[in-house]
Amino acid sequence: MSIVILGIESSCDDTSAAVIRDGYMLSNIIASQEVHREYGGVVPELASRAHQQNIIPVVDTAIRQAEIGKDEVDAVAFTRGPGLLGSLLVGTSFAKGFALSTGAKLIDVNHLHAHILSNFLQEEGKEKALPRFPFLCLLVSGGHTQIIVLRDYFNMEIIGQTIDDAAGEAFDKCAKVMGLPYPGGPVVDRHAREGDCRAFRFSKPNVPGLDYSFSGLKTSFLYTLRDRLKEDMQFVEKNIPDLCASLQQTIVDILMDKLMKASAATGITEVVIAGGVAANSGLRNAMTSLAAEKGWTVHLPEFRFTTDNAAMIGITGYFKYLEGMFATQDVAPAARWSPTPAGKRP
């Protein structure tokens, strides 16, 4: 008998709904909020208001596109956290109401966990090879940078993480210093393709173990711009491609250095990437090159599954459904919620 999951994602500024049947995506609808661009970042109050406006039409469209009825949904999976509390409340409240009105099960999903499991999404006629356990995941986003060992869908161990800023945050903040629009990461990536990654050198952290740090890189980048602008007020405008390429290469080098050490320490050569920065062309090229050099088996998520989306919530909900991991109506959203500790079920 088929298992149908309705996924709902509302952790930040994208309202998304998706339908998953037996691990296959039938629909994935996303409503983005352009209003935040003029503020240079997400405004929490505006985000939650927009979610309230978008949630019903987005869910309705996802269900219609999947060509199912509401009564066919076995469970509604929703992002419980981490994220913006006001935004999470909208998705959580809608999921509870939907479950009550239809009799569907309720499943709470960790947003970061879902980013990782997005690598298991399948589509009819587009089947792909899936990661095999155990594997290493480099999770890179605007708020998180972690190296995680997954021994099964719910047995995770974080073996490395940032001690300050995340990689995505470094991209966005350095882009802002250069006067580039928000979100800065994709803009840096576009300019980097036309620049020389060896044009400028920025400091790399010396952090022991498998942990990351990006605060020093941001400071080094800022000081480079400050010193060069004293010599030429048009320095940034004249060197945008080279600055972006050099910045991107430095961040990718930092990420890859720790990932290689993690693979050597664990003996694991099955590697995946996840999160918004997984869309970065420099990172994807580096992963492909290392796969050939080190003999790794690398899994790169499709671009549409790197940013926040409900399909990743749905596929995580599907695996939780199979294990009988259901939530109750008193479940509350959590602005801060770490992925599951090793050996424990979420």
Describe this structure as you would to a colleague:
- The structure is a single chain.
- The chain is α/β, with parallel strands linked by helices and 346 residues long.
- It has 2 domains: 4-127 and 305-322, Nucleotidyltransferase, domain 5 (2-Layer Sandwich); 135-302, 2-Layer Sandwich (Nucleotidyltransferase, domain 5), CATH 3.30.420.
- The chain is 42% helix and 18% strand.
- It has helices at residues 44-66, 85-102, 111-117, 167-177, 184-192, 215-231, 235-266, 281-294, 310-322; strands spanning 4-9, 15-21, 24-31, 75-81, 105-110, 135-140, 145-152, 155-161, 270-274, 297-299.
- The strands form 2 sheets. Strands 3-2-1-4-5 form a 5-stranded mixed sheet, with helices on both faces.
- Strand 1 and strand 2 (15-21) form a beta hairpin.
- Helix 3 (111-117) packs across helix 9 (310-322) and helix 5 crosses helix 7 (235-266).
- The longest helix has 32 residues, at 235-266.
- It starts with a strand and ends in a 24-residue tail after the last helix.
Helix-residue proportion: 40-55%
Listing every helix as H and every strand as E from the N terminus to the C terminus, the arrangement reads EEEHEHEHEEEHHHHEHEH
Q: So how many helices?
A: 9
Structural class comes to alpha/beta
Percent strand equals: 15-25%
Ends distance: 25 Å
Number of strands: 10
| Spatial shape | globular
- Rg, alpha carbons: 20 Å
Oligomer: single chain
Which parts are unreliable, with pLDDT below 50 for 5 consecutive residues or more? 341-346
